[in-house]
Amino acid sequence: MPTAHLIDGSLYVFRAWHSMPDEFHDVDGHPVNAVHGYTRFLCEVLEREDPSHLAVAFDASLTTSFRNAIYPAYKANRELPPPDLERQFVLCRAVTEALGIRVLIDHSFEADDLIGSTLWSLRAHGFRSVIVSADKDFGQLLGEHDEQWDFARNLRWGPAGVFERLGVHPVQVADYLALCGDAVDNIPGVPGIGAKTAAALLAHFGTLDALLDRVDEVAFLRLRGAASCAAKLRQHADAARLYRRLTRIALDAPIDSGFDVLVRKRGVETLEALCEQLRFGPLTRNRLRALTSI
After folding, report:
1. Which residue range or ranges hold the 5'-3' exonuclease domain (predicted)?
2. Residue 206 and residue 203: Cα distance in Å, rounded?
3. 3-state SS, residue 86
4. pLDDT tens for residues 244-281?
5. How far apart are the C-alpha atoms of 149 and 134, rounded to whole Å?
6. What is the pLDDT of residues 91-147, one digit of tens each?
7. Is residue 175 packed enough to be buried (19+ CB in 10 Å), middle (13-18) or exposed (0-12)?
8. Rounded Cα–Cα distance for residues 80 and 146 (Å)
9. What are phi and psi of 133, to 5 degrees?
10. What angle do CA 217, 220, 223 make, to 5 degrees?
11. Where does residue 210 rank: exposed (0-12), middle (13-18), buried (19+ CB within 10 A)?
12. Domain boundaries, the chain
């Protein structure tokens, strides 16, 4: 099957920002440590995989997605990126485009949604997808032939790997996160229901909807604190349904249809000027030139 690589760009920009020493500056003296680290990461992906079809998705903002509109506390626990990092995000997108790679970004939909919608569209064209990210949310997208790749740990897994990690199947991941919560995104989940209990409940009932419809059965399950769990589910049923709207990756984000838009371009003219602006060293420049040569 033809393969498309879909990269969670924002994750790797943040990782570069935290891991790279603050000793890289562009021609105007602005810090570009995250840009240098992100560029090295992207070069490694391209050199190791030589993908024919790929895209990098970025979050436009922490505060403007449709999830913020329905739940204002969504991601409210995160600090907004400082101006220096915001500027570097723009430059990371420019580096991505200079490598001939499709950039996905939207103010209403997050990177997860853009990747999910692209994967869903590609599947209809007979493609398998490799999602480059460590984010557990992406488990819900993996079909029979798809794969997730945690680049930093060089770990890869398919649908069976989702079950090994979370104890639920891909189609249950959004329900699972709605029940036990996701601290990273400030989604509290149902009080008193942790990861193991959420997995056990979904193993028995299959879906969140079936669980809430048959909540009276929960008290009779062989679960520690089953009666209390049933009471909490009754009390927080509406909240659980709301949380699932947050944890479910959208498959209808606005993307360009077709797979041709994901074909890597060669000989991009903006590369040399960008190398000068960012003061890339000879090694990085040679890697970038090799990757864009026709």
Report:
1. 1-265
2. 6
3. helix
4. 999 999 999 999 878 899 999 887 788 999 999 999 99
5. 7
6. 999 999 999 999 999 999 999 999 999 999 999 999 999 999 999 999 999 999 999
7. buried
8. 33
9. -175, 155
10. 110
11. middle
12. 3-166+250-292, 170-247
Residue closest to 237 by CA, chosen among 268, 265, 211: 211
CA distance 233 to 231: 5
Count the helix, strand and coil residues of the chain and give each as a percent rounded to the nearest 5: 55, 10, 35
The topology under which CATH files domain 3-166+250-292 is Rossmann fold (3.40.50)
Two tokens at 241?
A: 């349904």
Amino acid code (one letter) for 166: L
Strand 53-57 versus strand 147-150 pairing type? unpaired
154, 157, 163, 169 alpha-carbon torsion, rounded to 10°: 130
What CATH code would you report for 170-247? 1.10.150.20
DSSP string for 239-274: HHHHHHHHHSPPS------SSGGGBPP-S-TTHHHH
Question: pTM for this one?
Answer: 0.95
For residue 140, the SS3 value is helix
Q: What is the dihedral of CA 269, 53, 38, 250, to 10 degrees?
A: 120
Distance between CA 10 and CA 280 in Å, rounded?
A: 21
